[in-house]
Amino acid sequence: MGLTGTALAVDAGNTKTDVALVTTDGTLLATARGGGFRPPEVGTARAVDVLAHLADSVREQAGLPGPAGHLSAFLANADLPAEEADLTAEISGRGWARTVAVRNDTFALLRAGLPDDREPLGVAVVCGAGINCAGLGRGGTTARFPAVGRLSGDWGGGSHLADEALWSAARAEDGRGAPTELARALPAHFGLAAMPDLIEALHLRALPDHRRHELVPVLFAVADSGDAVARALVARQAEEVALMATVALRRLGLLDEPAPVILGGSVLTARHPLLDERVGQLLSERAPKAVPRLVTAPPVLGAALDTLDRAGATAEAYERLRGAWAQEPQAGPGDEEAGAPANSAR
After folding, report:
1. Residues 253, 282, 288, CA angle at the centre, nearest 5°?
2. Which DSSP category does 128 fall into?
């Protein structure tokens, strides 16, 4: 495109939104963070309102009086072409930038983890509040999943894991399910005596729904202690991560050659040993040439890098922008260092 001047970079997830203003020489001018981006719950216009004060904030910080040259927005819940089109139209109408591009937020993680000096090839799996996977192949081909929950065959992510832990604990408490330490640990986390108390507190909203996410670390701690039910949930999550990556690699024709598998999201970046090791093991078995890389940089970096891609930026610009976040891709599950083959350290 040969864009010049300034660009807005947006990464909007289910639980938080990051906006950055950058120049096309790779200078980071300003950043802002806000709440989650949930068009299915509040509608497109109200969801985009979440972005409005963040876009205004970074422009004010940088003293930018008019629109930016371009806006790259990588958005949760932009899962279907119709959703991308609606969001593009809504954001374009706000006048924040002269041109606008919208993609699903998984592509921001992917871009953040890919090198800047070659054709973008690889897949990304994000496991945070939810789970999704996207990939890029030769000639700009893509591999995606609808990622709208159980309706589209999804399993996992923090919200799902919390619900599964609660389900297992409730059944253990009343005798319908296998015994598990979760039945004690989950209510104890909130200072409650037993599962009936926790069920009542959640059902009557004495505990707000958003606090369920606090149960995911509890689940992993119980799994670390050897609890069979908790370990089974962690193993299932690892299976889903590896399965999505492998299917995407196969669709893109990348399964039989070295290709990055970028991993991110709060569940994966927490580096839980059981999950980490099992994901690495499964990838080494099913995609032995894959190169897993864990990226802990904020995905808004990927959105910012996308603006440089569109501007035809120099190598120095990419280096400057990455340096602003002071983050390089880290070693992935089972690897000693970034770039090591997936089955090199077992």
Report:
1. 45
2. S
- Give long-range contacts, CB 8 A cutoff, 24+ apart: 234-237: 234/272, 234/274, 234/275, 234/278, 235/274, 235/278, 236/155, 236/156, 237/127, 237/155, 237/156, 237/161, 237/267, 237/275
pLDDT tens string 137-156: 999 999 999 988 889 999 99
| Pick from 39, 42, 62, 54: nearest CA to 94 | 54
Output the six-digit token pair for 16: 């938080």
CA–CA distance, 28 with 55 (Å, rounded to integer): 14
CA atoms within 13 A on the CB side of 286: 21
Span 233-269, pLDDT tens digits:
999 999 999 999 999 999 999 999 999 999 999 999 9
- Exposure on the CB side of residue 130, measured as CA atoms within 13 A: 23
Q: Rounded to a whole number, what is the distance in angstroms from the first to the last CA of the chain?
A: 44
